[in-house]
């Protein structure tokens, strides 16, 4: 979406007026403009185009908004304004806020249809601001593209190519373990979940940055399609399961943003990529698997597969003793019941990290919300035949019990954050069309930027 913004010092002025200030603002305008805005019903329609009386060329655009602090106040403008180049009027901090919302609102997934016609653009004079905005919009829209892509074109091998391309672009190192190599290298749960698919399971591994820099490891759930396995989902529950690799999409988009901004960290990205399919060799309810960490797990439900692929990846993530592990996953419907679909929940074993993430999300208008690692619920994961079950004995507190399962594979000394995200907009909002969505990655990026730069 970088085509929605350009480095330029000229454009059609674009001004925003707060509703509460409208009466006072109008008094300071010319009589001609007051009459024009009244005739345009500016007070109710909220958008007015002003043209030169002789040439007919557009000379100014006015937008009426409820709150000038609303991050998304320009989220619909890229589709409402006539084609042209516009320049936001205001201070740079305001311009940065409005411009990003404008750019994100211009997103459209058009891979399988005719490309959209040219849209309105923003002109921004500050070149470094253009670069920052472009990096953020490109990262978020990469997440959206990956999630929106149909599963047939976004299987483990396709995620592998995406990460290979990222490594090539930013001079990183990429490696992977495919199919039975996962068993040879002791990633048994990743192999188990993905073995029933003709699209071979993989563990994807991207490394970037100076060897002596503080290491941050990102882990993303890459279930490219989730049928539910032998505990088959109903058709309604399966319809949007192309988005079950949303956690992988989030860490890939976040990694791109980190590398583009050249944060001074040593980055590692691990994506266990599988398809949870049904075949004669599919794993079964009641099976017991010994994980990479050595913990044995009884399979209570094959539709609780995300935590199974994540647990081996999390065990691998600790091999380098990183300063922080952050995982993203479309893990539970329970988190959506608790917080709705538009507010991502996270769990953290480090209170200082959690508090700073909350602050970072608030400061950049990318809200996140902490949920508790309530250890008392660990007993709900009890198994009579293994160390732990992959699913709790009750649906209550499902996001917490899933997080507690993952916590078993994290060393107590390791700082860890687990995001449980929807990765999908069920309704269209300004700047956020229906479909794949990035939730929380700007908050995490701002936290990392503040901590390490």
Concise structural overview:
With 453 residues, this protein is of the alpha/beta class. The chain contains 16 helices and 20 strands.
Would you mind describing this structure in some detail?
- It contains 16 helices and 20 strands.
- It is elongated and about 80 Å long.
- By secondary structure, it is an alpha/beta fold.
- It has two domains: 124 residues, Leucine Aminopeptidase, subunit E, domain 1 (3-Layer(aba) Sandwich), CATH 3.40.220; 316 residues, 3-Layer(aba) Sandwich (Aminopeptidase).
- Strands 7, 8, 9, 10, 11, 14, 15, 16 and 18 form a nine-stranded mixed beta sheet that branches. Strands 1-6-5-2-4-3 form a six-stranded mixed beta sheet, with helices on both faces. It has a three-stranded mixed beta sheet with strand order 12-13-17, covered by helices on one side.
- α5 packs parallel to α6, α9 packs antiparallel against α12 and α14 crosses α16.
- The two termini are 27 Å apart.
- Helices cover 35% and strands 21% of the residues.
């Amino acid at each position: 979406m970088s085509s929605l913004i350009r480095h330029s010092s000229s454009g059609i002025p674009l001004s925003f007026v707060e509703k509460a200030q409208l009466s006072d603002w109008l008094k300071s305008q010319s009589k001609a403009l007051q009459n024009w805005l009244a005739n345009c019903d500016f007070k109710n329609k909220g958008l007015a185009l002003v043209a030169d009386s002789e040439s007919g060329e557009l000379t100014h655009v006015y937008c009426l908004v409820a709150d000038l602090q609303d991050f998304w106040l320009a989220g619909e403008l890229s589709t409402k304004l006539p084609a042209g180049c516009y320049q936001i009027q205001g201070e740079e901090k305001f311009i940065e806020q409005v411009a990003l919302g404008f750019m994100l609102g211009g997103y459209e997934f058009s891979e399988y249809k005719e490309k959209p016609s040219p849209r309105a653009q923003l002109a921004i004079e500050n070149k470094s601001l253009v670069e920052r905005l472009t990096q953020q919009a490109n990262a978020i829209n990469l997440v959206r593209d990956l999630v929106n892509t149909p599963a047939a074109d976004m299987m483990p091998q396709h995620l592998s190519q995406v990460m290979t391309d990222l490594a090539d672009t930013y001079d990183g190192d990429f490696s992977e373990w495919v199919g039975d190599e996962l068993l040879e290298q002791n990633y048994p749960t990743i192999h188990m979940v993905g073995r029933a698919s003709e699209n071979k399971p993989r563990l994807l591994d991207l490394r970037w940055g100076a060897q002596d820099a503080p290491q941050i490891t990102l882990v993303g759930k890459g279930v490219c399609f989730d049928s539910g396995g032998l505990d088959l989902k109903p058709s309604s529950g399966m319809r949007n399961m192309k988005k079950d690799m949303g956690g992988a999409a989030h860490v890939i988009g976040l990694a791109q943003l980190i590398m583009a901004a050249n944060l001074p960290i040593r980055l590692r990205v691990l994506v266990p990529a599988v398809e949870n399919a049904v075949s004669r060799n599919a794993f079964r309810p009641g099976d017991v698997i010994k994980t990479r960490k050595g913990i044995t797990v009884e399979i209570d439900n094959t539709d609780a597969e995300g935590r199974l692929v994540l647990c081996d990846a999390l065990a691998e993530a600790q091999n380098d003793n990183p300063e922080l592990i952050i995982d993203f996953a479309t893990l539970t419907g329970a988190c959506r019941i608790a917080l709705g679909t538009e507010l991502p929940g996270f769990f953290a074993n480090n209170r200082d990290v959690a508090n700073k993430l909350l602050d970072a999300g608030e400061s950049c208008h990318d809200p996140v919300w902490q949920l508790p690692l309530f250890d008392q619920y660990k007993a709900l994961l009890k198994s009579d035949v293994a160390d732990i079950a992959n699913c709790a004995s009750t649906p209550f507190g499902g996001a917490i019990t899933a997080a507690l399962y993952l916590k078993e594979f994290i060393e107590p000394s390791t700082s860890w954050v687990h995001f449980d995200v929807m990765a999908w907009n069920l309704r269209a909002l300004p700047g956020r069309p229906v479909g794949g969505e990035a939730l929380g990655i700007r908050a995490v990026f701002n936290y990392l930027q503040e901590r390490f730069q």
